[in-house]
Structure formats: structure tokens, C-alpha cells
């Protein structure tokens, strides 16, 4: 099986993430234009429930599988790898069936009593079959990650988005005449088909690349795998706790938003529309750079686990520092662009810039989100999943408290929701960093902090000049793309000048190896 280096694996995941994000944006634009703000609101209100159930189903095993497989590979223990895969498939298989049935029975109560909009019943029911599909694919992803082979899951991500975007317009148009709730259910059906085809590809790659036979002595391996179960769940349960906290918070979020905005005197339909703007329009833009940070996090877990298994503490520190530096570099440009060009971006993408004030408000704080993911991955890779879980819990409680306090105030309304989400992001990131500092004395050198501030400052000055030039020439899509391209060129040059990306790192990549030697 082909194994990639940390940067090679990260680059493969980034390229796949870039493609899937681009296709995902097209999908969101199609959905938004076909269903409108209210349809998007119904769609987005149903998703947190799905994410919460999926988190319970997976039991945090993908991260645990990745770490334990990487450790077993470092010791060349193929039998241990087999035990890990068997235990994980059985655990996720059982939980996926239970939670699929549970979601189908609970959907009417969730839709009418908790989400306060009975129309969300249809997308909730439509999405439930995806749970066992995602459960199995998560085990396979963890296996390939632990092997440090990022190609199968990268290709699977692209396949999933292609299938989804191919089907979404058909199902939404087919069901839209029956109401926006049925159109939202149609959008969910396209998600299921995409995940299913993606799973078939993962199974094919597993059968083709595996060096272990799952069916051979299946139950005898299960009986002798008590220590493997303990090792897996020592990471999986706290990881599940972290994800469960996030999923449960996302589940409560639309409920709390609806109730808080109602207290503030905002009608149910307007609250749904505003929440749709925030989660359907603003969030995709704010989360755009996370495909890079998520890729770094996925590659970071097996890389740190292998280094730790080999007692290489210097490499552990270097990998964490490297991931933070690259994550900040990917997020800084997004922060500046979203702040300076919020109105044209929203107008060109969604045909309205009503939510531009929300985007400008949240973008500066979300730069910390881009380094949060690698920090959490580092904690999990170092068997510090419990502190990460407690940090997530503290952040979630603070976010929900601030949300209710501000959103129920007519002076804040939906802006109170945006402020609360920003507070949660900042707090969790700082807590993760503090946990790493306490555990392994990790710190960011002052010179690097200075470089980060300088990077933001230089990019902001250049971006402001380009924006003023663009506005003086009148709104035009081609000029807008040209303006962003020029800013990006200046930004990349600044990255190299400040050594956010070094020659030594580039030379590790086959694409640049011949040029730089």
C-alpha cells in the first residue's frame, strides 16, 4: 500500500478538499436558488440532528483507528491492524442500525416540538438511511489514514460531491411543486446517493489494497481483542464526547435560536430565514479554508502517533508547529478577503448581500478556527482526547449562554447569534493551546507571532487598495475575479518572504522537487 509523507498526504487531501469545496459551493448555490432562503433554512435546521446521530454512531472511532493503526504499522504488527478493523466494524455496525431506527421514530417529535417547524420532518426522515453508510465508510477512512495513504478517501470525497451535485437539481425540481419541505428532502436524498457511491469506492479500494483478511477467523479475533477494544475506546470515547458536544450544540442551536428570536419579537418564518442566511450563506464562506486545516489534521494524527511511538519528541513539536503555521497561512487570506469584499462575494454567489454585516462581524474571530482543528488533532494523537473534550464542553456552554442572552435581546437579534458563535470559537482554540502547553510545553515563538501579525497587516493594506480600485471601476464579475487574483499573488509572495512556506518543505513534494533541486 502506498504511503505518503506528512506533506504529501496533506497536499493530496487539500487538492481533494479544494475540488469538493468548489463542487459543494455549486451545490449550495443551486439549492439556494431553487429553494430560496426558507428552503435552505429547513435544510440547515435538519442537518444538526443528522450530525449528532452520526457522531453517536461512529463513536469517535475514525481518529482512534487512525492513531492505533499508525502505531501498529510503526511496529509492523499486521495482526493488531486486523483486530482494530474488526472491532471497529462491529461497533459502528451495531450502533448505526440502532440510531437509524431511533431517528426515524424520534423525527416527528424533533420536528414539531424542538425545531418548532413541522416541515423539517420530511428532510429528517429522508436523511436517516445515510447513517449506516457513513458508519462503515468512517472505519475505512480511519484505516487508510492510519496507513498514511490519503488517496482512497480523497478520491471518495470527490466522487461523493460529483454524484451529489449531479442529483440535487433533479430531486429538488422534482419535489419542489409539493412544497419547500419536500424540496429539502430531495436535497437530502442526493446526499445519501453521493455517500453510497463513495462507500462503494472505498470498499473496492479496501479489497484491492488490504493485506489482511477480515473474514478469516473473524469471531476468534473478536474474542481475543479485549485489549484492542480498550486501546481504541480510550481515544474514541473522549473524541466522541468532543464531537458529541459539538453535534449536540449544533442540534440545540437552531432550537435556541428560534426560541430566543421569538422572545425578541421575531416571527418564526423570519427567524428561519435569518438562520438560513447565517448557516446557509455565511457559514460556507467562513468554513471555506477549513478544507486545508482539516487535511492537515487528518495527516497530523498518524504522523504524530508514529513519531510518538518512535519516541521522537522533537518531530512531534515540529509537526504541531508546522500545522499551525500552514493553517494560519491558509486562514489569513480568507479573513482579509471576507472582511473587505463581503458585499460583492455574497451578491455574486447568492444574489443578495443582506447578510454582509454578519460576515464582516464573524470573519476576524474565525481566523482562530483555522488553527483549532490541528490543535485538537494534536491533543488526540498524544492521548489527550479528554482535555480536548472538556475544552469543547466549556466552549459550547459559553456559546449557548451568550447566544440566549444576546439573541433574545431585540437590540442584537441574529447578530447576537453571530457574536455567540465567535465567542465559542475563540475560547475553545485558546483552551486547546493551553492544554498542549501544559502537557508537552508547546509554545509558538514570538517571532512567528510577529510574522502572523505582519502577514495580516500587509495583506489588509494591499487588499484595501485593490478594493478601492475595483469599486472605482464599477461592479463587474470579471474585474472582481481579477482583483482577488492579484491579491492572492501578492499574498503568496508575502508568504515566501516571511517564510510561512519554506523551500525545505516544498522540496518534499514531487511537484516541486525537480524545480528546486
Can you walk me through this structure?
The longest helix is centred in the N-terminal third of the chain and has 53 residues, at 6-58. Helices cover 84% and strands 0% of the residues. It has helices at 6-58, 61-74, 78-114, 121-127, 130-146, 151-175, 180-209, 218-223, 226-263, 268-286, 290-309, 313-340, 342-350, 356-362, 369-381, 385-407, 414-440, 446-472, 477-497, 503-506, 510-516. The protein has 21 helices and no strands. The radius of gyration is 23 Å and the shape is globular. With 517 residues, it is an all-alpha fold. It is found in: Cell membrane. InterPro entries: PG_synth_SpoVB, Poly_Biosynth_Transport, Polysacc_synth, Spore_V_B. This is Stage V sporulation protein B. Keywords: Cell membrane, Membrane, Transmembrane, Transmembrane helix. The chain crosses the membrane at residues 40-63, 84-109, 121-143, 155-176, 182-206, 282-305, 326-350, 356-375, 412-434, 446-466, 478-501.
Q: How would the blueprint of this fold be written?
A:
Layout (H helix, E strand, L loop, with lengths): L5 H53 L2 H14 L3 H37 L6 H7 L2 H17 L4 H25 L4 H30 L8 H6 L2 H38 L4 H19 L3 H20 L3 H28 L1 H9 L5 H7 L6 H13 L3 H23 L6 H27 L5 H27 L4 H21 L5 H4 L3 H7 L1
